[in-house]
Design goal:
The chain is an alpha/beta fold. It folds into two domains: 135 residues, Rossmann fold (3-Layer(aba) Sandwich); 212 residues, Rossmann fold (3-Layer(aba) Sandwich). The protein is built from 15 helices and 17 strands. Strands 3-4-2-1-5-6 form a six-stranded mixed sheet. Strands 14-13-15-16-12-17 form a six-stranded parallel sheet, sandwiched between helices. β9 and β10 form a beta hairpin. The termini are far apart. 41% of the residues are buried.
């Protein structure tokens, strides 16, 4: 029985999110409205990620054009038919004005549906999907690289253990473990009889659970206050774990622990040459030139939350006679960098911290992590439920995608932090507001 052909009408933001998204719709018809090309044309001169993706999408369409007429339809490598068309919709539904590119793109999908075809309008824009649905068009999000946030890997589990296993672990600091677990997965072994609990991390190479010290010493003056923070410090301070993700709500200590670990491993252990810190408050590629001062002065406006953490660390960190954050920056122990300038760099032997990583797309995360040179460690922190980008959500952002993509890799460690230690007020606000 011949499969019914589907027609996917692609919104501009999908191509900005992923320039090769057209290839995701195998053996169907893909329509790019002419107005999408107009919007790509307006974006192509931008120096940020949007501009780069716009140019890549345009090049893809230009390459397809060479194989036939886009207006009539060109067969592309995934077996789909690609068409570019402009809406000539008659009997435009009442209330839909043809005065914006968004409406013109939606009306293209409406016109195709009026021809009797099975149409899906694909957009990252929630409002555009609502408009399309109001017109009776099936509207969907672009869900490739999207994860189920409700089932996001936590990096931790609790397992009942016998008294004998608890004894072996307590005495030898390791317990052979044959059950399948992701590498660097944390396990809390508990014995119900004596209510003893021991925290461990799975060593995939040795197939054993390694004991995690519950009396872990302070790190650059910062002491872990709960088991989740002990897990975080355990992978942050392990130089064999080159990529770490810390996910949690406000006040769980994600950024504080990352910076403290970076300072310890740079200043005390001399494992890394410097701590490189960035955050995507500045949209990738956005010029910071309009702010006064030099680069660090400009970045300080965006990095103030990081300075707050640094000031706290330095208030309790008495080693190396460090007086303030500016001293660390001036001596290049810590370097602040705009994310747009990380692209194209190779960053060897550095402790790299990307804060608020939930505001990055999967492609942007790939760009950043792939900059890590030999001997570097990359730490991404964020809260997938606190996203500023209009086209990302808890399941489609780069941080969530990275957690699921790297789960089980021996150089990757992840901790989901639930408990806020900032203050009772901060924890209550995160829970009920």
């Amino acid at each position: 029985m011949k499969k019914e052909l589907k027609t996917f009408v692609i919104d501009t933001n999908v191509l900005i999110h992923r320039p090769d998204a057209i290839l995701s719709f195998r053996d169907n018809e893909v329509v790019v409205p002419l107005w999408v090309l107009e919007e790509l044309d307006n974006l192509k001169t931008y120096s940020d990620e949007r501009g780069r993706n716009a140019r890549r999408a345009i090049r893809f369409l230009d390459e397809s054009r060479r194989h036939g007429s886009l207006s009539e339809g060109v067969k592309i490598e995934n077996g789909s038919i690609l068409r570019v068309m402009m809406s000539h919709a008659r009997n435009v539904p009442f209330g839909i004005l043809e005065d914006t590119p968004d409406n013109k793109i939606i009306l293209t999908a409406y016109e195709i549906q009026q021809q009797g075809k099975r149409v899906f309008f694909v957009s990252k824009d929630i409002n555009a999907r609502v408009k399309a649905t109001a017109l009776g068009i099936k509207a969907v999000d672009y869900e490739r690289q999207k994860v189920n946030i409700e089932k996001l890997y936590s990096g931790f589990s609790e397992i009942d253990a016998s008294y004998e296993n608890i004894r072996i672990l307590r005495e030898t600091k390791a317990l052979p473990w044959s059950d399948s677990l992701p590498a660097n997965h944390f396990v809390m072994l508990r014995n119900k009889q004596n209510e003893e609990r021991l925290l461990t991390r799975f060593d995939a190479d040795r197939a054993e659970l390694a004991y995690v010290d519950h009396k872990m010493p302070s790190v650059a003056g910062v002491r872990p206050m709960n088991d989740e923070q002990r897990m975080a410090f355990d992978v942050l301070l392990d130089e064999r774990v080159a990529l770490v993700t810390l996910v949690g709500k406000a006040g769980t200590g994600k950024t504080l622990m990352a910076i403290a670990s970076g300072l310890k491993m740079t200043l005390e252990d001399q494992r890394y040459s410097r701590v490189l810190v960035s955050r995507p408050v500045i949209p990738l590629g956005k010029d910071i030139g309009y702010l006064p001062g030099g680069k660090n002065d400009k970045l300080s406006h965006w990095m103030q939350p990081l300075f707050d953490n640094l000031e706290y660390i330095l208030s309790v960190y008495k080693k190396h006679n460090i007086k303030n954050a500016e001293q660390l920056i001036n001596t290049r122990v810590i370097e602040l960098e705009a994310l747009t300038y990380i692209r194209g760099r190779s960053l060897p032997n550095q402790f790299i911290i990307i804060d608020e990583a939930q505001n990055l797309s999967p492609h942007e995360v790939k760009t950043i992590v792939s900059r890590a040179g030999d001997g570097s460690k990359v730490v991404l922190t964020g809260d997938p439920y606190q996203i500023d980008s209009p086209y990302l959500d808890a399941g489609s952002n780069g941080l969530s995608f990275l957690v699921e993509a790297f789960k089980g890799q021996d150089l990757f460690g992840h901790v989901t932090l639930q408990r806020s230690e900032r203050s009772r007020l901060a924890e209550l606000a995160a829970e009920i507001l």
